[in-house]
Amino acid sequence: MNVIRNISDSSEPYARCTQTSKRVRWDIDKDVIRGRSFDTAQKFLPDGLSLADTFTTLSSDDKRFVSQIQGRTYANIFVP
After folding, report:
1. Distance CA 24, CA 46 (A)
2. Burial bucket for residue 44 (CB in 10 Å: 0-12, 13-18, 19+)
3. What are phi and psi of 57, to 5 degrees?
4. For residue range 32-48, what is the model confidence (pLDDT) as tens digits?
5. Measured between alpha carbons, how far is 80 from 24 in angstroms, rounded to an integer?
6. How far is the C-alpha of 4 from the C-alpha of 37, rounded, in Å?
7. Of 24, 33, 61, 67, whose CB has the highest number of CB atoms within 10 Å?
8. How many other CB atoms are found less than 10 A from the CB of residue 11?
9. At 26, is the secondary structure helix, strand, or coil?
10. How far apart are CA 68 and CA 2, in angstroms?
């Protein structure tokens, strides 16, 4: 029996990716951080990703803190 698949169905690759991601269980501390510690004196994301540098009303310490919040949030996007 021949099966014809609709190539224009763009939701299929997304559905397959979603199914696969549900089978994987990430632990951010175990799989990413692996016992390392963050240097809170540094930014967690580069300025190009965080855009914290564009906040004109924040001090440099506050911009670094925003970068750290965004970095942790970004990492948690990938952890169910």
Report:
1. 28
2. buried
3. -90, -5
4. 777 777 788 888 888 88
5. 9
6. 52
7. 67
8. 8
9. coil
10. 54
Q: What is the pLDDT of residues 4-32, one digit of tens each?
A: 555 455 667 878 877 777 777 777 777 77
DSSP 8: T
Distances (CA, A) of 41 to 38, 57, 60, 73, 76: 9, 20, 11, 18, 21
Spatial distance between the Cα atoms of 42 and 47, rounded to a whole number of angstroms:
12
Q: One-letter amino acid identity for 59?
A: S
SS3 label, residue 24? coil
Q: Report the C-alpha gap between 34 and 31 in whole angstroms.
A: 6
More confident position, 65 or 1: 65
